[in-house]
Amino acid sequence: QVQLVESGGGLVQAGGSLRLSCAASGLTSSNIVMGWFRQAPGKEREFVARINRSGSTSYADSVKGRFTISRDNAKNTVYLQMNGLEPEDTAIYLCAGSRGRFDNTWYYWGQGTQVTVSS
What pLDDT sits at residue 100? Predict the structure, then answer.
């Protein structure tokens, strides 16, 4: 059974930092694409960042230069380092994994962790 469990969310002041973790079980995170999405109240879920099997990364324009996605293969965990947080970053952050090694469809989802940035 595949599980993605996020942690590390919380309340932080604008300009602060948080590091989110996504611990995977039932799959090998380095064999698929892993990513982070977020959903703010009343808004649609939006892409934040992804890390491919090769280790290459991509980011939404709104977080580029402030957020960094990485993974620890030994721990089967993906991270999202968030610096320079802004109130607009307030959302539930969800970890996602693709369906398979050669299928990049987002398929596995965690329950999410709340990030709140105060001004």
Answer: 87
Distance CA(72)–CA(98), nearest Å, equals: 17
The vertex-46 CA angle with 42 and 50, nearest 5°, equals: 155
Cα-Cα-Cα-Cα dihedral of 104, 106, 108, 111, to 10°?
A: 150
User: Is the model's pLDDT at 101 over the cut of 90?
Assistant: no
Single out the residue of 118, 92, 117, 104 nearest to residue 36, CA to CA. 92
The yes-or-no verdict on residue 24 having pLDDT over 90 is yes
Locate the DSSP E strands across 10-90: 10-13, 18-25, 34-39, 46-51, 57-59, 67-72, 77-82
The mean pLDDT value of the chain amounts to: 96
CA atoms within 13 A on the CB side of 76: 13
Which pair of structure tokens corresponds to residue 43?
């808004």
> Comparing C-alpha atoms, which of 51, 42, 55, 52 is closest to residue 92?
42
Q: Are strands 10-13 and 113-118 parallel, antiparallel or unpaired?
A: parallel
Cα dihedral 41, 46, 50, 52 sign: positive
